[in-house]
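Here is the promised in-class demo. Please do not try to memorize the tokens; focus on the logic of going from shape to residues.
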């Protein structure tokens, strides 16, 4: 089954929202977001190598990772504000190339039954310029490629 990414940015808001369904139980989908060795296998587009330098996956924990390719190394960091197993993650997200432009990200994990799940997300940017820059950066293509890699990973869990 093809599970397309639905990404939109409502007009006159600072938010981006997405929905994606997976042919995997919600527990496996959540685990792929919780365990660093699994995250490294799918987060980001093809052609990037990921290194996780900090990962404290719990409420009030934090993370830092880099993506690298021939063009350079790009760092990202944030705080996990709320983690509820198999249900919800609230975190901040900062691209270190644009300091002080921190997004607030909400992710809801939904059990659809029959071994299927849905991930819904909402990312709130600090201003419209930051939101529009993310949207024009190729973010949608990167998310699509990452979720395609996640589909393959989930088959092995």
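The designed amino acids, position by position:
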């Amino acid at each position: 089954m093809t599970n397309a990414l639905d990404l939109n940015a409502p007009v006159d808001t600072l938010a981006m929202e997405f929905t994606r369904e997976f042919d995997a139980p919600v527990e496996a989908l959540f685990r792929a977001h919780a365990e660093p060795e699994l995250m490294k296998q799918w987060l980001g587009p093809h052609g990037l190598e990921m290194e996780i330098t900090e990962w404290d996956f719990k409420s009030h924990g934090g993370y830092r990772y880099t993506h690298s390719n021939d063009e350079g190394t790009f760092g990202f960091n944030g705080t996990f504000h709320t983690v509820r197993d198999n249900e919800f993650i609230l975190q901040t997200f900062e691209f270190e190339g644009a300091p002080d432009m921190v997004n607030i990200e909400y992710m809801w994990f939904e059990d659809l039954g029959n071994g299927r799940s849905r991930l819904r997300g909402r990312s709130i940017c600090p201003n419209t310029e930051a939101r529009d820059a993310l949207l024009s950066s190729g973010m949608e293509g990167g998310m699509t490629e990452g979720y395609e890699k996640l589909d393959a990973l989930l088959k092995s869990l």
